[in-house]
Write a structure and sequence with these properties.
Strand content of chain C: 5-15%
Bound molecules: pyridoxal-5'-phosphate
Helix content of chain A: 25-40%
Distance between the termini of chain C: 74 Å
Order of helices and strands of chain C: HEHHHEHEHEHEHEEEEEHHEHEEEH
Helix content of chain C: 25-40%
Number of helices of chain C: 12
Largest sheet of chain C: 7 strands, mixed
Shape of chain A: globular
Structural class of chain A: alpha/beta
Distance between the termini of chain A: 44 Å
Oligomer: heterotetramer
Number of helices of chain A: 15
Number of strands of chain C: 14
Radius of gyration of chain C: 24 Å
Strand order of the largest sheet of chain C: 2-8-7-6-5-3-4
Largest interface: A-D, 192 and 192 residues
Chain lengths: ~500, ~500, ~425, ~425
Amino acid sequence: MIKKVTTHLSQNEALLFERSSPGKKAYQLPELDVPAVDASEALGAENVRQEIEGFPEVSEVEAIRHFTRLSTWNYAIDYGMYPLGSCTMKYNPRINEVAARTEGLAWAHPYQPEALSQGCMEVMETLEAALAEICGMDAVTLQPAAGAHGELTGILLIRALLQKRGNPRKKILIPDSAHGTNPATAAIAGYAVENIKSSETGGVDLGALEQLVTEDVAALMVTNPNTLGVFENNIVRVAEILHKKGAMLYMDGANMNALVGIARPGDFGVDVMHLNLHKTFSTPHGGGGPGAGPVAVKKVLEPFLPTPRLRRSGKKLAFDYKRKHSVGRVKAYYGNFGVLVRALAYILAHGGPGLKNATMDAVLNAIYIRKALEPYFDLPYTSPSMHEVVFSDDRQAKLGVRTGDIAKRLIDYGFHPYTVSFPMIVHGALMIEPTETEGKLEIDSFIDAMISIAKEIETDPQMVKGAPYNTRTSRVDETTAARKPVLRWKPA
Amino acid sequence: MIKKVTTHLSQNEALLFERSSPGKKAYQLPELDVPAVDASEALGAENVRQEIEGFPEVSEVEAIRHFTRLSTWNYAIDYGMYPLGSCTMKYNPRINEVAARTEGLAWAHPYQPEALSQGCMEVMETLEAALAEICGMDAVTLQPAAGAHGELTGILLIRALLQKRGNPRKKILIPDSAHGTNPATAAIAGYAVENIKSSETGGVDLGALEQLVTEDVAALMVTNPNTLGVFENNIVRVAEILHKKGAMLYMDGANMNALVGIARPGDFGVDVMHLNLHKTFSTPHGGGGPGAGPVAVKKVLEPFLPTPRLRRSGKKLAFDYKRKHSVGRVKAYYGNFGVLVRALAYILAHGGPGLKNATMDAVLNAIYIRKALEPYFDLPYTSPSMHEVVFSDDRQAKLGVRTGDIAKRLIDYGFHPYTVSFPMIVHGALMIEPTETEGKLEIDSFIDAMISIAKEIETDPQMVKGAPYNTRTSRVDETTAARKPVLRWKPA
Amino acid sequence: MLDACGVSTPEELFTHLPEAVRLNRPLNLAPGISEYEIVQYFRDRADNCANGYASFLGAGVYNHFRPVLVDTVVSRGEFLTSYTPYQAEIAQGTLTTIFEFQTMICQLTGMDVANASMYDGSTAVPEAAMMAVRATGKGRVLVAKSVHPEYREVLATYARHQGMPVAEFGYVSETGNLDLEDLERQMDGLTGAVIIQTPNFFGIVEQVKAAAEIAHRHGALLVVVFTEAVSLGLLEPPADADIVAGELQSFAISPSYGGPYAGIIATKEKYIRQVPGRLVGQTTDSRGNRAFCLTLSTREQHIRREKATSNICTNQALIALMATVFMTVYGKQGLRELAEQNLAKAHYLAGKTKPRFTGKFFNEFVVRTEGKSPDVVNKALLKKKIIGGLPLGRFYPELADSMLLCATEMTKRADMDRLAEVLA
Amino acid sequence: MLDACGVSTPEELFTHLPEAVRLNRPLNLAPGISEYEIVQYFRDRADNCANGYASFLGAGVYNHFRPVLVDTVVSRGEFLTSYTPYQAEIAQGTLTTIFEFQTMICQLTGMDVANASMYDGSTAVPEAAMMAVRATGKGRVLVAKSVHPEYREVLATYARHQGMPVAEFGYVSETGNLDLEDLERQMDGLTGAVIIQTPNFFGIVEQVKAAAEIAHRHGALLVVVFTEAVSLGLLEPPADADIVAGELQSFAISPSYGGPYAGIIATKEKYIRQVPGRLVGQTTDSRGNRAFCLTLSTREQHIRREKATSNICTNQALIALMATVFMTVYGKQGLRELAEQNLAKAHYLAGKTKPRFTGKFFNEFVVRTEGKSPDVVNKALLKKKIIGGLPLGRFYPELADSMLLCATEMTKRADMDRLAEVLA
Ligand SMILES: Cc1ncc(COP(=O)(O)O)c(C=O)c1O
Ligand SMILES: Cc1ncc(COP(=O)(O)O)c(C=O)c1O
C-alpha cells in the first residue's frame, strides 16, 4: 500500500517559446539618465544584431507561473527523503541562503580593493581553517568549483611536487569502485589510469597494490569510506605502501559525511583530498550545482596550491599572487564564494559537537536501513557500513526486475530513488544513503516502501517494470533521446 | 478534454501533533549573555505553567517539509487563473514583498520617535495622496485593516457627522445585491438595516429609493460597479436623492478595479468609501488576509476621521492626536503598514497610465469571457459588464447541476472556481472576474473548460455532480463539519 | 480580443458610462517606475528611519527574532497568493495549517476553541466584549486601566453605538496589579464583561483567577487579553477566562510600524457559536479521508448578514501562518526557553534600574526617570543610538515621570548597561 | 534505532575503525551558534566590505540589476533542493528549464547546441580548447592577449599537462582590437584552436569574422569567449565561431566576490559529441507525451571514465536557472533595451574621459590616468566612496598607466560626473 503520496492536480505548462506573444514583457527599466546612443554608430552597423529570434516574450505573471508550475514537477529534499548514495542529499538550511545574500558579501566585486574586502577574506580564512581542522590537513585551497575540479587540482599538486622532485611519473592507480570523475581527472592531468581491482571485501587489495605501485605510479586515488560505504581499514598500510615508493595518497572526500569529527584523513596518511561542500557541508544541489570542491593538503604540497593564496599579516588579509611553485589558477577569482559562505554558516551552526553528532546520525541511519532491508535484498559486501549501504538486485533480477526498475517503482511510493547501478563492482547496485537529515518516521516509511516493492516483485514483476505510474510523466525513453538528439526547441 | 492539468504525485502529511516526537527541536537560541533567572521566583510559582501539552516537537527539516508539502495542496494565483468574482484575484508582484521587507520599514516600531519615523510616515502620506487622487476624494485614513473594517469606519464617520448635525438617524439602506459585510457593519455601527430591492436591470431602483429615503435614513451603502459587475448609471441621481434628504452616499469600493483611471467616486457624488488594497492594489490575499481597507472621504467628513491623523508642517511629518470630532481609533497604531507599503509599490510601478491600462484590461477580459460564454450559460442581467460578469445556473439546474457543482468540476479542469451563489439576487450565480492579470491563453483555456463542462452537463450531469475527481481531496462534507464541529486536534 | 468584444479600442468599453461620471483627464500620478527604482525608493525612506538603533520599546509590539523558516514558508506562492479557503478541495494546505493554528492557540491559552484570526489584538478586544455581551445578555463592560491604552480606545470606538457602556477600573499604585477592590466596587448586575490583560500594559502578571472569581460571581464573563504571546511559554495559561483575546505579533511578526499583525479570540466550548470570524473544522471527503473546511459559517456576515457575530471577512491568515511556523520552529521546549531568556534579560535590566511597581513582571516593567523627564532621558539616549522606553504620561498622566522598558532575547547586555548608565 | 542496530551508543557504530585512525578528541571548533548569531556574523563581515560605494569595476564581473523574480524562482525548494535530474520522471521541472536554457543560449549565440553549464567562463575556455583539439586532432592553441587574463591563466593550468602548447597573440595598440596580422603570423598547421573574446577584456568589439576566416583557413577552430553576456542583446551573435565559451554572470548573478557564476559551451551541430558537461534532450515518455532527460551521457565521466570529454560532474545548474529566469524576464525586447542602456551609460562616461583605444566598445573601456598612476587615482576616488576602474598594470605591464572602466544600467550619472572630475 502506498501511504506516502496521493495523486493530485499538477498544472501543465508549455515551453516559454510556445507561449510567447509578440510585445509581451515582464520587465521595466529605469528611465535613462544619460543621452541615448545610436547603436549602429557606437558599435558599427555590422556589429549590431537583428532581434533575437525566438527569445521569450511573456508577461511577469506568465513568467512566475511558468517557473512555479515547472517547479512542482520536481522532487526535492524539501518534499522528502532523497537517499541517493554518494550524493549526501542532506537538508539545506535556509539560514545559509540568507547568509549568502548578505548584501556586502553578495555584491562584493572580486576586484574591489583588498582593504574593502576584509570581511569576504575573513570568511574564507575561517573556512579554510575549519576545513583543515576537520580533515587533519595543513592547508586548504577554496578555489575549485566542485568535486571533480578539486580532484584535478589535487592531482596537479601531486604532479607539481613529483616534477619538482624530478619525475612527475606516469600513472594514477584507481580502484574499480571509484567514481567516474577520478579516472577522467587523471586523464586531464596527463596521467594514464591503471585500475586496481577491489578485494573480496570491497576494499583496496593490499597484495594487488604492492604489485602495482612502481616508480611509475604518481598516486592512488582512493575514496574513503569507499563507494560501498565501507571504511578502508587498511588505509594506514595503503599510505605506507605508496609513500615507500614515493607515490602519494589522494583521497576523494565525497564521503566525508561518514567521518567528520570521527576520523581525519590527515591522521591516516592522506596527502591530499577534496571535499564536496555541496555534500558534506549542506550547500544546496540546485538541480545539479553549484558546488565547491576545496582541496586540503599536507604541508609538503602547500607551495604548489593555486594562486592566489590568502595571507594574514597582523590585522590585514591579503592575496599572495607571487608563488613560483604554484600549479597556477584553476578558476578565475577565488572560488565559489557564495557556496563557501553557506558551508561556513553550516559549520558555525553545528559547531564541533554538532558536526560529530551529524556524522553519527548519518551512520546510524544507514545501518538501521541495512538491518531492515537485509532480509529482502542481497548484500554482496558485508563489511560494516558507514554512511551508506549498497545492495545488489541479484535476487530481484532473477525475476527480471533490475535495480533501475525498483528505483522507478520507488517513485510511485513517493520517494526519490537511491543511486542506481553504482558502484560498478556491485551487480545491479542499489546504493542507499539516508544522511543524518532523516528522522525515524521518514526512514521507516522508506523501508516499508522497499519491502513492499520486494514483495510486489515476487507477485507481479511485470507491473514493477512499468513503473512509475503515478507521475505526470511516465517512464522516459532515454534511448531515443540519445539516438536522435533534440537539444533545443525550434519553431515547428 | 482536460488540457490544463495532469495528475502527479503529491506528498501526504500528518498533522504536526501527530508527527511530533519528544525532544525534537527546530530552533537554537543564542547563549544567554545575562544570568538565568528562576521563573518560579521571578513570576511566582503559581504563575508558571507546566509544559504546553501537545505542542509541536519536530526537527527543522520536518518543519520545512511539513509546510512545503501542505503548500502544494493549495491552488494559488501563481498556479493559474483565479476568477473569483468580487475578489479581484490579481497577480501579486514580488517586488512588493521585497519593498515590505525593507529593513528600516519592516522593523520600525510604532512608538519609535517621530523624528526617526519620517520615512514610514512619508510612505503613508504618499499613499494617502495617491488614493485620494484615484478616488477623487479629499482625505484618506489608512487605519482600517480590511474592507469590512473600512466600512465600519465609514459608517461611524457618517454617524458622527449626522450626530453633530443633531441626529444620527436610524437606518442604513442596503441593496439586496450587497456583500454581507455591508449589513453586518451597519449593525455594529448601531443602525438598523433596510434592504432595497434591485431594479430589473440589477441596479438601484430610483423609485424605490425615493420612497425609502426619509429623515430616518443615514446613508445608502452602494457597491459600484455593483456585484453584478454593472455600473450604476444613475449614481449621480442616487446621490442627489440622498443628499436632498440629508443622507449620505457610502460606496463599497471592492470593485474599484473597474474604475481606477476611468471614473472617480468623488466625482459622481460619493461621500465616503473604502478601498480594498488586497483587491484593487495587488496586495496578496495570503489565504485570507491580511488586507487593508483605507477610507476616503469628502472634506465635510474629514474632521471625524480616526485618530491619529498624519500632518505635515514644512519638512516634518507628525501625528495629530488632538482631534475632538474624531470617531476615535478603529485599530491600534496606524494601520496595516506592511500592506500599505505593498500597495504603494504597486501604484509606483504602474503610475497613472499603467493603472488605467490595468482597468481597461480587466474590463476587456470580463467582456471577452461574457461574449464567449453567453451561448452556454444564462445571463440574467444584460446591462454592459465592467470587470466581472455574473451568469446564472438556470439552464444547468434543469438537469440537476448547480453552480456549486460546476465550480467543483472546474477544479478538475485545473482552475479555481468563480464565486459561487453570490450575489444573492441571481439564482445560482456564477460570478466571474478575470482581472487584468490574465492573458488570452489562460482565458481561452478557461472558456474552453467552461464550455466543455456545459457540454458534459448535457451528456452526463451525474458525473459533474460528483466532481472533483482529480484532486487529492475529493468533495468535502461541509455539512458534517458544521453539525459536529471538530475545531482542534486532540490526542486519540 | 478587442474584436471579439466588438470594440476597436479599450476606451470604447466604457462609452456606456454617463459622460458626467467619466474622468476626462489622466490621473495626476507619475508614470510607472522600474523594480530597481522601487527598491531604491523604499530604501531611501527606510534610511530616514531608525536603522542601527538599539531599542527598549515594547508596549504591545516586541522585537523578537524571526526564524528564517517563517519567511521561507510564507514566501511560497501557494500560501502567499491563495484566497480564503472556500474551495476546500484545493485549499487543504491553508485549511490544515489553520486547523493546526487553532489547536496551538488552544494549547497555549487553555481554551477549547480558537478562531482563525482577527485583525489584531486591539480589535479582538471589542469583538470579545461583544461576544460576552451577546452571551450574557448584559451590555456593560468593565475594563482594567492596565489594558493597553490603544486597545481601550478601540473598544470605546466600537462600543459607543452598540449600547455598550464601558467603564474602567484601576490598578494598585504600588504593585501595578489590578485593583480588585475597585473591580468589586464597580461590578453590577448589568455588567457582561470584565476585561483584563496579563502581562498587563506595565508588564505585570495579573491575578486572573481572582478576577475570574469576581466576574463570575456577578454573572459576567472574564475576557483576558495578552499582547506578549511569548509570555505564554512560561506563564500559566488563562484557563479561568471565558474568552481570551490576544495579539500574536510576538510570534515572528515584524513590528512593521504597527501592522499587519494577527489577533485571536479563543473561548470555551459553550461559546462556540458566539465566536466572530472564521473557523476551520475537521470532516471527511467523499472518499472518507480526513479533510478540513471552513465551518459554522452561519455565524458569519456572508450568511447571517446584519445578524452576524461580527462584520469581519478578510482576516490575517498569512500572519497567522507565520505565527504557526514560529510556534512549530520553537515548539514545546523552545517557546519556554525563549520565554526564559526574555525573563532573564528583563530582570537583568531591572536589576540595574529601579522598577516602579512591585508586581511580578515578564519582559517589561516601568521605571521612574528620577529628576529628568522621560523625554529628556530619551533624548540623551538617542544621542547614543538608543531608543529608550515609552514615556507613559501620554496614556497615564499619573505616570508622567515614568517610562515602560522592554527587554527581549534580542536585547544585548551591553546596550542594557549603557541604558542603565543614562538612567542612573 | 540504536537498539535495532545492536548498539547502545552511536559511538559504538565506529568501533570497527582501527584505533589509529580515530580522532580521540573533539574537533577544535567552537560550539554551534543560533540563526540570529549567524545572520549577525555575516553582517559584521559584510560591514567590513564595500557597502555604500559606487563602483566602476567590470573586467568580467558586472553589476546588473537582478529582477526580483529570479530570487523568487530559485528560492523554491523544488529547484533549490533537488539533485541532478537523473530520474527524469520526477525532475521534469529542472529538465524543462535546462532545455529552455540551452535553447536561449543557442538563440543568443547563433550556435546549434549549448550545454547545461560549465563552472564558469574561465574553465569553459580550456574545455573549449580541449574540444577543439579533439575535433581537429591538432594540439596547439593560440589565444588572444585581449582574452580575460585570468581565463588565460586557467587555460595555461589545464593545458600544461595535456600536450597542448598555448601561445598568445597580441592586440593593436591603437585600437585595442585583435592584431590579426600577429594571428596570421603565428598560425601554423599544428594549431587546433584560436581563442578570442568579444567584447574583449578592454571592452572592445572584436572582428569575429576575420578571425574565423584566418582560423578556418589554417584548419583550426575558432573559439569565441564572452564575459559580458548582456552585450549579446545588441551585438551580432558570434555565428562564425565553431565554439562559444561564455560567462553568464551578467544575467542576474550577484558578483559574490567571484562566484558561483555559470559558464556555457555552445557549438555547431557537428561537434555535439565533443561537448563537455551535461546535455538535456527531448524525448517522449511511455504514454507518448513530450518529456526531457539528460542525454548523450556516453560523453561523460560517469560512463566513459578516463575517455570522457571532461571530468565535470556537478555543474552550475541553479545559476543557469537564474540566468534562464533573467532571460525570460527581459526577453526579446528587454535584453536589447538593457544592452542599449549599458551602451549609453558607458558612452556618456567615455565622453567625459579619454578612452585609450579607438575600437568600438560596449560598456567598458580603457582610460589612461594621465600624470597620476591608476592606484593614486583610485585612492582619491575611495575618499569619495567611489571604487574606480581596474588598474591594468597587473595584467598588462604596457598598460600600467591605464585602468579599465565599466558602466552599466546601474551606474548613476552623478557618480560618473564625480569620477570624471577626479580623472580630469
Ligand atoms: C565519490 C564521488 N567522487 C567525486 C564526485 C564528483 O564531485 P562533483 O560532482 O562535485 O564534481 C562525486 C559526485 O557525485 C562522488 O560521488
Ligand atoms: C463587495 C465586497 N464588499 C466588502 C467586502 C469585504 O472586504 P474585506 O474582506 O476586505 O473585509 C468584500 C470582500 O470580499 C466584497 O467583495
